[in-house]
Amino acid sequence: MGNLLHALKDRNGKKITHDFFIDFESASPNGEEEQAVYDKVNAVLSRTSTILDELEGYGGAGDQIRGAISAPSDEEAQKAAWDAVCPLVSKLKSFHDYAFEMEAVLPILLESLTAGKPVETLEQRQACAKLCAELLSFVLKFDDLKMNNPAIQNDFSYYRRTLSRMKMKDPSSDDSAVVNNEEANRMSLFYASPTPMLKRFSETTTKFVSENKTIPVENTTDTLAIMSTVCQIMITNSGYHDKFKDKSKTIQFCQRVMVAAVIVYDHVHVFGAFSKKNSAIDIKGTIKATQMHDNPDQENLLNALRYTTKHLNDEDTPKAIKTMLA
What we know:
This protein has 16 helices and no strands.
């Protein structure tokens, strides 16, 4: 925790950890520079609620597909399955395309939050910190919904198989398909990951860190660590709860952001989040904070720490931490 404890001090060396509050509910841009970044990122981020609603309501074409498979010579059954699956694949394409939109604006947001000293920047640019938190919350929500809906993979697999058969009969059919073969190959790689949005977020952040030579790597990893720690404090310290307009909703939001920030940190930091000597993350505190307040997503968040982090099973991960997540 050495780097983080140093980061969470003011210029006089006084700890500001327990006085550091990010207004995730209603922070607004501070100045023209932050406003410009906020507008660019928010134009993309404003669609996350719609995407999550569409994904949550994704029912799949299982009945029609089973009907087509059980009656391969029935042209009506084949048509019914194709007609049912095409609009769903079009929706899956929109989710896939959104991941690339997120990938395009994330470096802009990261640069805004990491160009200066992490603590001062997060305090001064709370609207951008709020956007980053909302994006972290979104990727966990999206991936959780995706993982728990097998219809997505089943529908897409059926679509690809059917498209291949159609192309064998008529090569031009690919041109009129809602998703052509080349696009389907890219989408297949995306949906093959159990956590596609988090993977995109982590890879984009890693690329940002490796390619941006003017911003120290530690600025990015410390920013993630500070966001996670601030969320942890806001969850566990009841003194903050009176500041929340919607206590339950905001605490659950903080829990998702805390966990997501830890996971991204674990992928970006060379030693990961679990190293006792080298990590700025309080993993034990993170796990305990995740288990508080009867969050209905509690087990999903713990599973995210168990299965989507990179360094949990490293040799230098304390046995106590492994036991807590066993």
